[in-house]
Design brief:
Elements (H helix, E strand, L loop, with lengths): L1 H32 L6 H11 L4 H23 L8 H39 L2 H7 L4 H38 L5 H11 L2 H27 L4 H32 L2
Length: 258
């Protein structure tokens, strides 16, 4: 019995310890955000890497998701002769859930791995030690610009993805399901409320923060050698994806619980 409890306790304690280290890391990064200097060049380069270069994959994901969502909703609503709800439910589903979550997961797959690999390689090649010798704090130079850029850019990606996803549903609705274009758009905007869109953008900001935090954390704590960098990259993507899904539930509970 004691061995069984120990086998269960070790992973639980390890998980709690990892959460504590991550919380301390996040607190340290936020504290450095409020103190000068601020490296504007690193921030803008991070905006390009996280925001602009992630736009194609987020846009394609949203387009096909919106199209598939319209087909699924039509197939389900046809059983109850409620096909008219397809435009409104497609739009609400995209802006509330699918747009932020799938956009966050795509950014996590692309950006968290990139950040972890980049910073992990810098650690292995002792470039981070070189920053310290030049009186440059690694947290302020490497982590803060990426976290700020991700927190600001991912909501923009989510907003663009929402529009593209709704247009994907419109393309299927008008070209495949026989909806009138004007009626489809009227039903879309008539039932879409401001907070539906706003909640998705808030989720996007939270997911961007999570992606950059996990990428920087695992990069900074990367093991030595190629295997250490590889493990850090894999762990960053897995942790960011799980954290996004968990945060999505918590935020949905806060925003829309009765």
């Amino acid at each position: 019995m004691a061995r069984a409890l120990a086998a269960l306790g070790r992973p639980a304690l390890g998980t709690l310890a990892a959460l504590g280290r991550g919380g301390i890391f996040a607190g340290s990064a936020l504290s450095h955000l409020l103190r000068p200097p601020f490296y504007a060049r690193e921030f803008w380069l991070s905006c390009i890497q996280i925001g602009w270069l992630s736009l194609p994959v987020v846009g394609l994901t949203a387009l096909f998701t919106g199209a598939a969502l319209a087909l699924q909703i039509y197939a389900g609503s046809a059983r109850f002769s409620a096909e008219s709800v397809v435009p409104s439910i497609t739009a609400i589903g995209m802006v509330r859930e699918l747009g932020p979550v799938l956009g966050g997961l795509m950014v996590a797959a692309r950006v968290a791995s990139s950040i972890a690999a980049e910073i992990g390689t810098m650690k292995v090649t002792e470039q981070i030690d070189a920053l310290v010798t030049l009186s440059t704090h690694p947290m302020k130079y490497l982590t803060v610009p990426r976290m700020l850029a991700a927190t600001l850019c991912v909501p923009v990606l989510v907003g663009i993805g929402d529009v593209i996803g709704i247009m994907g549903g419109w393309m299927v609705g008008t070209g495949r399901l026989g909806f009138n274009s004007a009626t489809y758009m009227k039903n879309t905007w008539e039932y879409l409320e401001f907070w539906d869109v706003g909640s998705g953008l808030v989720k996007g900001a939270a997911f961007g923060f999570i992606v950059a935090l996990t990428g920087c954390y695992y990069g900074m704590n990367s093991g030595r050698g190629a295997q250490g960098v590889g493990r850090a990259t894999k762990s960053a993507v897995v942790a960011a994806s799980i954290a996004i899904l968990a945060a999505n539930y918590l935020l949905t509970e806060v925003f829309f619980a009765a």
